[in-house]
Design a protein that fits this description.
The complex is a heterotrimer of chains A (285), B (286) and C (364). By secondary structure, chain A is an all-alpha fold. Chain A has eleven helices and no strands. Chain B is mainly alpha-helical and 286 residues long. Chain B starts with a helix and ends with a helix. The chains are: A mainly alpha (285), B mainly alpha (286), C alpha+beta (364).
């Protein structure tokens, strides 16, 4: 089972075959999706009719509308980007504050609050969306009915989507940043004080640079999770639909290679983001 | 330094946390619970009652879907664990150097695409006009198009695929921390593959196993896209019914009750899982 | 308070709950001194150092540095720098930035900063290492960077918290001597805490032996070794044999001790003298024990013992002997003067009573 324990040739062969099968299973759906973004046919299926960039570039004149001319999808992409931006900002800020709170301070009820912090991880995403919809949208409805006050921020829309996603993404950001803070030697801060820094300066010159890789990692993760989220988002979205919801609606109408084109774009985008985040954190102690 | 400043900084840090947890988690869920006990008598009058819950138990379609969702989620979680464990073991213990990092990265690849994209990929492969069907015909193993989508097997394939990453990562992390001498000692003292696995490796990896299982179970139970896009007419998922109540029928009271039930189910199963394995939430998730 | 003293503390107390980690400690360190605080782990020396650095506040007593009272001065305003136990080099900064960190806080312009960093690096023997990462350095080099980071600020007082603990034995020996030279070269007052007596003895001008939150004795290393003031110091500083018995008589500062097997031994009475008839302990160093029976001077005190083992360790070779259940060690000179001894052989161990110390039994 481990290198030092002898294994039979037969067992090794079987293990290797299993590994290969596993990684094929992992890669197949994504590869297929990517490849069919370039098939010169109206449906993403065999036979292969030749290579084309129509599904990105066609301007609609020949009956095909490519992604870069598809206003619905482009505006959905923009909506998703704005949502992801705010979710990332709020979640990472909350994550930093929470990490310091739970790793560096001692107070009564800390254990209980920590469990509360973990709670969003064991609530299904749909429920997170539903509960926020019921509370905030319900509140907006009640206010409108009883006093005629219109609180449109709490109607389904971007604000609610951001709130819903922050609910659980903030927990993940906290865990990532807290894990890094746990490895921080508090003596470094004392050393900074000892060398003449005020506590605030010590935090910004010593602790924050130490946390930076984890902050960037958390930001990349938050952005991806927000961009890809469907379950919470679909309950809270209003008139400007984010990309996943727009794609879902498109998919129910029937699949076209434009969907493959979007999918490939998303994969490349996420891959670049992931590589950037990992590249930043590599080489740092 | 002095206690006044310490108190101030504690409150400064505590406030954002409390705002988040109270306004986004606690209050909305309590409100959902409250709404689930309301009965709409006319368009603007509400009364208290258990009608929503009664509906759930009398309408067999509801609770059948509920049970089905729970059982299939558990099965999917178990299957994911079985599939992921040898992979995690290989990455953590057998692969070396560069191969190790690359394999680990490869496991993360599905995460680069959203659930929707992943499901879409499987649809392209499995449907009647899909790749598998075409290949089978080309090989002469099938006479006409074969429909492999829209059944429970397809749903489970998709769900396992979605969960794998969240199982592999915690498993690799815990197995990585295991001292190989433990395994060697297990063999040295006369154990065979099965006993060493059962008595040394699995107990060691338990926190990772539980952590992975909880995440995968939660994801599966709460998933919406995969069952609705890959499942057939009989493979309804409970989240779908919640969605229908809220979005299609505007029946918030019924939807809230179903939401509460799903939350209760997930809490009970997670709690049971932690109890049975002797782990704590803090240890496996934090 | 001495005019020349860099550090002056009086009646320092720091309690944790009911336990006083630092218990009425007073000290006075003249400028330019290498002052060590030596004690076993848990004796309160780290707490004392943290009081001096300002990371903790005393419950009672005052700290003065160059005559200025420091009790209410936060750590970043004290003219005190510290070399931490694990060095605490900032891992996110280069060597140059680590050393420049304090200068930057003092708003020293960047050109001057660069020259001062270059100069101090040269002084500690690491010229041109500014752009290296602390992680790439060897243990000894990291040590020197940590020192340079403090010394570049020209502090009144440099605190060192067992900085050599993490080094391997050979490097530690080398760094001891180097630290001593650096301290002389910079002329900065060093306060060095350690549990390793050899570090304290080799480097210090003055050593304070600390036990249980209190100073047992403050003296130059040699005096500490030759004239221990308390049984704790006698037992802790250097190797020592300890014989327990009852005080029989005292004459001219010399005490006679009746051991439990009835034999009578003699030694000079220490500062904490027991009463006649009380239990007492006699300390005699292994190198003060003379082997063999013939050439003994008449005033020597002696004891019969049997050889248990000879422990060969080059210049530190020792003989282990047993005398009525009490284990004694004697030095075995390797210049051929010591007799060859077999296990079980009986022999006479003798010593000059002026070299032995008699104390009332100590707590430790």
């Amino acid at each position: 089972m481990i290198r030092s324990v002898p294994r039979s040739r037969w067992f090794d062969g079987l293990y290797l075959a299993y590994l290969v099968a596993f990684f094929i299973y992992l890669a197949l759906p994504l590869t297929v999706t990517a490849v069919f973004a370039f098939n010169d046919a109206p449906f993403p299926s065999l036979p292969w009719k030749g290579f084309t960039l129509d599904w990105y570039l066609a301007d609609g004149s020949a009956g095909r509308t490519g992604l870069f001319h598809d206003d619905t999808l482009l505006s959905a992409l923009w909506t998703s980007t704005r949502i992801a931006f705010w979710v990332t900002l709020v979640s990472v800020a909350l994550g930093c504050v929470n990490a310091v709170l739970f790793e560096r301070l001692e107070f009564r009820g800390k254990e209980f609050l920590y469990l509360l912090m973990l709670l969003p991880l064991v609530i299904p995403g749909v429920i997170l969306g539903v509960s926020i919809l019921v509370f905030y949208s319900g509140m907006a409805n009640d206010l409108s009915r009883t006093w005629g006050i219109e609180l449109d921020v709490f109607r389904p829309g971007m604000t609610l989507v951001v709130m819903g996603q922050v609910t659980f993404i903030a927990t993940l950001a906290t865990l990532v940043i807290a894990a890094r803070l746990r490895k921080f030697d508090p003596q470094l801060e004392e050393a900074a004080l000892n060398l003449g820094a005020t506590p605030l300066v010590a935090w910004f010159t010593v602790t924050l640079p130490w946390l930076m890789p984890s902050i960037l990692g958390a930001a990349a993760m938050a952005f991806l999770m927000s961009f890809e989220n469907f379950n919470t988002t679909v309950m809270l979205t209003g008139s400007d639909t984010p990309l996943t919801v727009a794609l879902f609606n498109r998919l129910r109408e029937g699949s076209t290679p434009v969907l493959n084109a979007v999918a490939l774009l998303l994969m490349v985008g996420s891959a670049i983001l992931a590589v950037l985040a990992m590249g930043r954190s590599r080489g740092k102690p | 330094m002095n206690s006044g400043a310490a108190r101030l900084s504690l409150w400064l840090l505590l406030t954002p946390f409390l705002l988040w947890i109270v306004l986004l988690v606690l209050v909305p869920h309590l409100q959902m619970l409250r709404v689930s006990f309301q009965v709409r008598e006319s368009w603007d009058t509400l009364a208290w009652g258990l009608e929503q819950y009664q509906n759930f138990f009398t309408e067999s379609y509801y609770w059948r879907t509920f049970v089905r969702t729970g059982v299939m989620s558990l099965f999917t979680t178990f299957l994911t664990l079985l599939i992921a464990f040898p992979i995690a073991w290989y990455i953590a213990r057998l692969a070396r150097g560069r191969a190790r990092g690359l394999l680990f990265l490869a496991c993360l690849i599905p995460f680069w695409a959203s659930e929707l994209v992943r499901t879409y990929g499987w649809m392209i492969l499995l449907r009647e006009s899909g790749l598998f069907s075409s290949w089978l015909q080309a090989l002469g193993w099938a006479d006409g198009p074969v429909e492999m989508l829209y059944n429970d097997v397809a749903v489970i394939i998709g769900l396992v695929y979605n969960g794998l990453l969240f199982m592999v990562v915690p498993l690799v992390t815990t197995l990585d921390g295991m001292d190989e001498n433990l395994v060697e000692a297990g063999y040295d003292l006369g154990g065979n593959h099965a006993t060493v696995l059962r008595e040394v490796v699995v107990p060691w990896a338990m926190p990772g196993i539980v952590s992975g299982c909880i995440v995968v179970f939660m994801l599966t139970l709460g998933s919406y896209l995969t069952p609705i896009l890959m499942g057939g007419k009989d493979s309804a998922w409970f989240t779908q019914q919640i969605f229908t109540q809220f979005i299609t029928r505007f029946n918030w009271e019924q939807g809230a009750a179903l939401g509460v039930l799903l939350l209760v189910l997930s809490s009970i199963i997670v709690w049971l899982g932690l109890r049975l394995t002797g782990q704590s939430l803090r240890k496996v998730m934090g | 308070m001495g005019v020349e003293s860099d550090l002056f503390c009086s009646g320092l107390v720091r309690r944790f709950g009911s336990n006083a980690a630092v218990d009425h400690v007073s000290l006075d360190v003249p400028a330019g001194t290498f002052f060590s605080i030596l004690g076993p782990s848990g004796c309160g020396k780290t707490t004392l150092l943290r009081l001096l650095a300002g990371f903790d506040r005393p419950d009672e007593g005052d700290i003065h540095i160059r005559g200025a009272r420091m009790n209410d001065v936060p750590p970043n305003r004290r003219p005190v720098n510290m070399v931490f136990q694990h060095l605490a080099l900032f891992p996110t900064m280069s060597v140059g930035d680590n050393i420049g960190y304090g200068l930057k806080r003092q708003k020293v312009p960047s050109a001057e900063r660069r020259t001062r960093i270059a100069r101090v690096l040269e002084q500690v023997g690491l010229p041109g290492m500014e752009n290296r990462n602390p992680g790439e350095l060897s243990g000894g080099q990291r040590q020197r960077v940590a020192l340079a980071r403090c010394l570049v600020l020209e502090p009144t007082l440099l605190l060192l918290d067992e900085p050599l603990g993490a080094l391997d034995l050979k490097l530690r020996e080398q760094m001891k001597i180097e630290l001593k030279h650096l301290q002389k070269a910079f002329g900065t007052t060093f306060v060095y805490i350690t549990h390793d007596q050899s570090e304290a003895m080799v480097m210090s001008d003055q050593v304070a032996v600390m036990n249980d939150g209190r100073f047992e004795q403050v003296a130059p290393p040699e005096e500490l070794y030759r004239e221990p003031a308390t049984p704790f110091v006698a037992g802790f500083v250097g190797d020592n044999n300890r014989l327990a018995g009852k005080l029989e008589s005292v004459r001219d500062g010399l005490a006679d001790l009746r051991l439990d097997d009835g034999s009578l031994v003699r030694g000079r009475l220490g500062q904490t003298a027991p009463n006649i008839g009380d239990r007492a302990e006699l300390f005699i160093r292994p190198e003060s024990l003379v082997l063999g029976g013939d050439a003994l001077k008449s005033e020597y005190s002696s004891l019969r013992a049997s050889v248990t083992a000879t422990l060969f360790d080059g210049a530190n070779s020792r003989l282990e002997a047993d005398s009525a259940g009490q284990t004694l060690y004697a030095r075995l000179p390797q210049d051929g003067s010591a007799p060859r001894l077999r296990e079980g052989a009986s022999l006479q161990l003798a010593w000059d009573p002026m070299l032995a110390r008699v104390f009332a039994p100590g707590a430790a």
